[in-house]
Amino acid sequence: MEIIKFIASLIAILLFIYLGVYSLYLFVFSVLGKLIPIKQPATATALSKFIVYICAYKEDEIILNSAAAALTIDYPEDMFTVCVIADSMKPETIVKLKQMPLQVVEVVFETSTKSKALNKAIENTAVGFDAAVVFDIDNIAAPDYLYQINNYLQAGHRVVQGHRVAKNSNTQVAILDAVSEEVNNHIFRKSQQLFNFSAAIIGSGMALEYNLFVNVMSRIDAVGGFDKEMGLLLTRDKIHVAYAEKAYIYDEKVSNPAVFEKQRKRWLSAQFNLLKKYGATAPAQFFRGNFDYVNEIYQMAILPRVLMLGLMPFMLLISFFTPGIGPHWHLWLGATVACYLGIVVAIPTSFYNRKLLEAMLKLPLIFFTMFLLLFKLKGANKKFIHTPHDNAPTEPVNEQTAVK
């Protein structure tokens, strides 16, 4: 009996260390990010020349709209080129794209991945560009997006992640997805700058110095999660990723629960596979003083926020009814409060409305969906899992995210 109690206490202590430290991490970064202003770069006079890659897999109607929108970005026409990477597009779509003043790179792969598409586009890119920007098929950039990114590049930053926000709120799932995006923006991008840590790269809306982009893309072979691998490679090379909070890139959030499940399965699989691939390198980098890379690895090891929202009160309840086993319930209460406050503080105040309250009713279902996905990841990172888009009408969650 004593052995069973010892083992149970040991498991409870390890869980508390894992979940409690993460809860404190969320709380510290979230609160400090609200209290301490982030310095913005000065408006640059010199201009970078951009190549804007739009990764397009099927979904022909969406790419026609997105490509047309990209061409209207408010930046000198001779200082940026739009390149559509057309994967498995219809012939008539290719014809329409080629009638626009942009470059079209047609690709077909046995197994499509974003990294393969981007590397093929690089092979077909002319010389002379200062920076590369990556958009997803549904992304719409704010008119001043390139100017905002340029300010950071001219200030000496080599990698800049833009501020990706929701452009639709047509379902409760879409609203929760939008909130999740903003929580991540605040904690894992904006607030990271306070400690001189790199912002987490999302996968679209980011810009890299062109030669650096070519170099890092040549080293990426991930089926899913190319952005996460990019972040690891950059920080391992001690290259900082800046966060341009005012460089808005509007992104369609997932509206359908089934699509949401597939997308999260792909993300979780990529996260854990990359942790397995790179995790063992963290100690060596720590002793070399590369804390930015260690922080990146740590972020790979933590659970999605929605799982924390369910697990923390569950562990608190267990500790309350099992006194003498593991940490006292007061400790679990403190960790749970820190976790919830960290997430709540990170949500922009403009999101707090009736729609959000109604959408929160979906949280238990999403929690169980995400929890079950943890046991369904086998083989998920060996094949490309496409996230289809609904071409949802622009219906901003709040006035701050309105497409102008």
From TrEMBL:
Q: Which SUPFAM superfamilies match?
A: Nucleotide-diphospho-sugar transferases (SSF53448)
Q: Does the keyword Nucleotide-binding apply?
A: no
**The keyword Metal-binding is assigned to this record:** no
**Which keywords has UniProt assigned to this entry?**
Glycosyltransferase, Membrane, Transferase, Transmembrane, Transmembrane helix
Transmembrane domains' residue ranges: 6-32, 306-325, 331-352, 359-377
Q: Which Pfam families match?
A: Glyco_tranf_2_3
| Cross-referenced InterPro entries | Nucleotide-diphossugar_trans (IPR029044)
One example of the protein's molecular function in GO is: glycosyltransferase activity
The family annotation for this protein states: Belongs to the glycosyltransferase 2 family.
Q: What is this protein called?
A: Glycosyltransferase, catalytic subunit of cellulose synthase and poly-beta-1,6-N-acetylglucosamine synthase
Question: What is the organism field in this record?
Answer: Mucilaginibacter gossypii
From the broadest rank down, the organism's phylogenetic lineage runs: Bacteria, Pseudomonadati, Bacteroidota, Sphingobacteriia, Sphingobacteriales
